[in-house]
Design brief:
CATH superfamily of the largest domain: Hypothetical protein af1432
CATH architecture of the largest domain: Orthogonal Bundle
Structural class: alpha+beta
Number of domains: 4
Helix content: 40-55%
Shape: globular
CATH class of the largest domain: Mainly Alpha
Number of helices: 27
Strand content: 15-25%
CATH topology of the largest domain: Hypothetical protein af1432
Length: 738
Amino acid sequence: MIDIDYEKENLEISKRYKDMLKNSYLTLTSEDKKLIRKAFDLAKDGHKNQRRKSGEPYIYHPLEVAKIVADEIGLGATSIACALLHDVVEDTQYTLDDIEKNFGPQIAKIINGLTKISIINEQDISIQSENYRKLLLTLSEDFRVILIKIADRLHNMRTLESMKPDKQLKIASETIYIYSPLAHRMGLYNIKSELEDLSLKYTESEMYHSIEKSLEETKEERERYIKTFTEIISERLNEEHMNFKIKGRPKSINSIYRKMNTQGVAFDEIYDKFAIRIIYKSDVKNEKFLAWKIYSIVTDEFVPNPSRLRDWITQPRSTGYESLHTTIIGPENKWIEVQIRSERMDELAEKGIAAHYKYKEGFNVEDNQIEQWIGQVRELLDGQNHTNDTKDLLDNFKLNLYHKEIFIFTPKGELKVLPNGATTLDFAYSVHTNVGDSCLGAKVNGKLVPLSYQLVSGDQVEIITSSNQKPKPDWLDFVVTSRAKSKIKNSLNSEKRDIAENGKELLYRKLRHLKINVNDEELVKIQKFFNVGSSLDLFYNVSIGKIDSKELKKYADSKSVLSSIINRFKRSSVRKPVQFREIEESKNYDSLVFGDNEETLDYKLSSCCNPIPGDKVFGFLSINQGIKVHKTNCPNAISLRANYDYRIIKAKWIDSSQKDFTANIIIKGIDRMGLLNDITKIISENLHINIKSFSITTEGGVFEGKVKLDVNNKTQLEKLVEKIKKLDGISKVVRTNV
């Protein structure tokens, strides 16, 4: 039993409370302060006997969430009070009625929204997806719910060390899957970057720490470089009597990691690892003029890259972000990104939607696309039939979270913001559902084009409609916006729903006969088994006899097998909590074992990432194909852990008999006589590795080869890569998933 010094803890709680209010105290009214104190007292009382996994008093958590809400997001007294109370209804004796009685209906509504979207760790996909659905629905009620939930997740990620490794992976995957994109859409770029970095810390631990260490080692050199740049530009800006400050910051670890991955290069080969920000003081009238004036001064001193100019001041991003970006060849002939923005723009960039509402008066808010986007989300969710697949909804929603934007004009000159790759049909649906449903074609810049025509920024579009036109299934093949997809599906499904209603009753009756409990969770599993996209398709297929009693019996049999495997691992986990040992690269690991008891089971290696011995892997219990093995950095790992965590099993390689595994590598370099012979000699003669296929392309003296190999393990593959890299003319050798 650990002795707790309650007096010391109470002093620390008081200290944290004062620290939470430190930055916003002067701007709060006396009524605001009373409200926050009242919320704190109730939260402190409610959580008085609770502790976090770290052993700390639970009240530390709502205090830290409230501090993020106040300082990093910049919300006011109501939101700070809600942050303090956000776990009270879920975790304490206080009810929603108590909250409404003490704080009124507005705070009770926000707390209710926060309680709805609290995700329990052990939940499976259907319940998780429903929670995500509820989270998105809160956008149409009060955006503060989302902002407080993002703050809650940020603090949980900052304190994730105290959780078990499997929970760390699940929470990190969930964060990158939904909360980071939401933070991005709310304009919280600092929080979005931190969420991505913290997620990477647990999903790709070795890579995270490697980049972190490299950034630390280059910190002194970076600071010296920023100082040199600042001295040159400051002198010129001072000559113009400008009020400014210059800051340098490294790119996020996750951003560097993504570039290393997509470009197939090492840390040292990433040329733009940090950015310089010039922030100037200005009234609203002269903001744009001064931004371009500073740009002119910077490009007088340093050569810009014209293709990297981004003017987010003339046309802000849909998140409200405003800034002028350029990439220049700076001191010492190094590429560097320069961001130019006013103090107002900087606050909008730091605090997103919260700062946008602070500056609402005096600005044409209709020009800011945040309200339009929230309206689209509301419309998308309101139009969603309950029989549709919730995960499909989430995926459609996520399509529009991260996208490059294009700017399109109506015939009257009205501006529409669409994702890159949008078609004329996407544009038609962005105008109105009826316009989209009856769209026959379009004129782009006066020229007649088909519905599938992809638009580019600056296009002026006139939609041609016909009362005889109706949505067609093939429209779904080329539209990209979630709005268009949703509206087309709703139209196509109206007739299908009538048939599906009969199938629903028939399915439920047959499942009861098979002694299967019917609920949302079970329906999702059945959908996956029969490979149908939604519950609507499932009911429809039952109604027309495509899925009959015989097929449902097969599902019931497979379900009992899957359940026994899951229960087996649950029991073994309780019986023997063994920690996996780290893989020693010197050994020949070529066989897999699963679970804490290291059992040998049948499995298949996933084709999406082609794991080989030595890779860090996990097992996934699929319904139709048994255990599928994925690499921990598989492109699908994040989604699997976020949505199906209850079907993830630990897996590790052990040393047993030799076995060959397929691996793919890409080799790039300068084309020269005898290069192919040198490569094949190393592979076949030196290391005795079997080549399954070898394709070559050469263009302009540059060679690229794609090789599929049979290897024993990761160590053998790494040895091969190192040997090929040493050949004359070879510039890059990387392993790929396919």
